[in-house]
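Hi R.,

Here's the chain you asked about this morning:
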Amino acid sequence: MDAFTRFTNQIQGRDRLFRTTQYTCMLLRYLLEPRAGKEKVVMKLKKLESSVSTGRTSNLNRVVYFICDTILWVKSVGLASGINKEKWQMWAARHYYYFLLLSLVRDLYEISLQMEQVAHDRAKKEKSPSQNPPGQCVADEETEWLQSFLLLLFRSLKKQPPLLLDIVKNLGDIMNPLNQLGIYKSNPGIIGLGGLMSSIAGIITVAYPQMRLKTH
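And the predicted structure, written out as tokens:
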């Protein structure tokens, strides 16, 4: 109970809970909409989703996105009129997309460093290089290369859980701006699932600071 209280006392902790609720509502709404007799439940989920989205805060490191998000919040709570909501939504989505794209590039760089380190450690342990059996065809060599690559990737991510969490978080988040910008259209179910996975990953990093990615 004390751990939960400390978590909710943090701004990031409350934001992650709001975010988890928002995307859970979106996912449930998508799953229930096709079913008859669920109209009232869907409407309540939609209202709850809208309510928790206005209670969220933005990461101050995303300065431009924070400005756009704040303007949209002012419009949503009725503090100002005459704001072009669609225009600012596109601005927010575009800058959020660029932020996530750069974050994924950083993740790829971190993965390459980890894979290089794991491959180096593995090579040191091996006493002699493995020899390919005679008569091995090109297809077998390509299959073996792919298996080795995937195994190396798995070992690298297993060795660095914070990197895996950061990748899951960024991949889950990027579905929303991709859809808003028309780059890759997704349904609310996919966006809700991605956002929910990202929110859970974010909750873990807030609850356990050692799980936050430390970049080189």
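The CA atoms of residues 62 and 167 lie 18 Å apart.

Let me know if you need anything else.
M.
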